[in-house]
Amino acid sequence: MVSTKRSQEPQSSRLSKAEIEDNFGDLHPPLSRSEALIEADRCYFCYDAPCTTACPTGIDIPGFIQKIRSDNIRGSAYTILRENIMGGMCARVCPTEVLCEEACVRNLHEEKPVSIGRLQRFATDPVFEQATQLFSRADASGRKVAVVGGGPAGLSCAHRLATLGHDVVVFNRDSKPGGLNEYGIAAYKTIDDFAQKEVDYILSIGGIEVRNDVAMGDDFTLQQLRDDYDAVFLGIGLAAVNELGMDGDDMTGVDNAIEYIAELRQADDKSALPVGRNVVVIGGGMTAIDIAVQSKRLGAERVDIVYRRGPDQMGASRYEQELAQTSGVTIHHWARPLRLHGGGKVTSIEFARTSFDDKGKLKATKDTFVLDADVVFKAIGQRLADDDVVDLKVQHGRIVVDDSQATSLADVWAGGDCVTGGDDLTVSAVQHGKVAAIAIDTYLRK
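and the corresponding structure tokens:
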């Protein structure tokens, strides 16, 4: 998953190992017990809680907060994890500011919303630290399900199927399970190898076999899985990266952001990683923010994000945009890449200013500007690999599913980033996997 085109000056010439370790400390340190109790007391415990409605996995938020108040931490964790088995990671990476916390009724009184995400982490962290198993398997059904993809959607589906008594085999293309939680999220959001701790907890339920380093299309086909298993779930993500589509796209220093984030996440010594002096990131989503902030924390002297539309259209939340800016990143709106400059290695990139025409269509203007760059990161989205969609109905480059996550094939379900109508969030992928597992269970027991 890592790029081999970079040719940059070693990081160690700019920041010390100690400085980098400090820069990649926990973004939001956990609450102490007294802090958690004070924060829990701020909840109004609404009967028809809008925060629960705003949660894609439907966690009973007032319920788990009430259990924190009564010092029933295990019960609180169970309330969270029975709806969202990845509640620990979601407490760290979920954009709560636009989901549950935005819906908090305290916002109506112009107050600070209840810190739901941090309370969720307070409740769930002890479960993962102590490996406390809160769930058990039902009697064996004798049925076997194939899950393709070891990310949030696949693992959520596998765990729920296992609790329902089915045996599951997870086919994972990476060397470790976890998907984007392991390879694609900023390192300062999930320290101390938490993603794998959560994976280990999920697998400890039993009945789940993981086969790493295997990919659909290379090592097996969808039809083979349909022949060999009683049902199939696809949580394959978006394996192909969108390109800039201009000359010089393949020159040294022009890299895929998601690949470098993966390399950074797996690095034992971040100070040994190469980093540019002048880094330009193209894109406006979470990946763009993550690579920009991490480049700055690795010691890049200047980091610029360039996005073709305005701040309201960016995929990254306002909070994440502000995090980038307060970390020293400059965000340029209303501009798109025009051409790359450099003789084999990128030296700068030229942009054209953009605006909407009378019909509301984005267009480039004649106004241009140039940014120096020895590294350009592409963070303009991903798409399904062509081999992944054979025999499935696809729309706008993603797999079409219904409300139960069923695809156009009777024994195949799908969820996560690879399906239509998604928002590319871990919490939504977990919900897709859970809903699909319940539907698969119904299908298998008919």
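(Above: one complete record from the training split.) The domain at 33-130 is CATH 1.10.1060.10 (Fumarate Reductase Iron-sulfur Protein; Chain B, domain 2).
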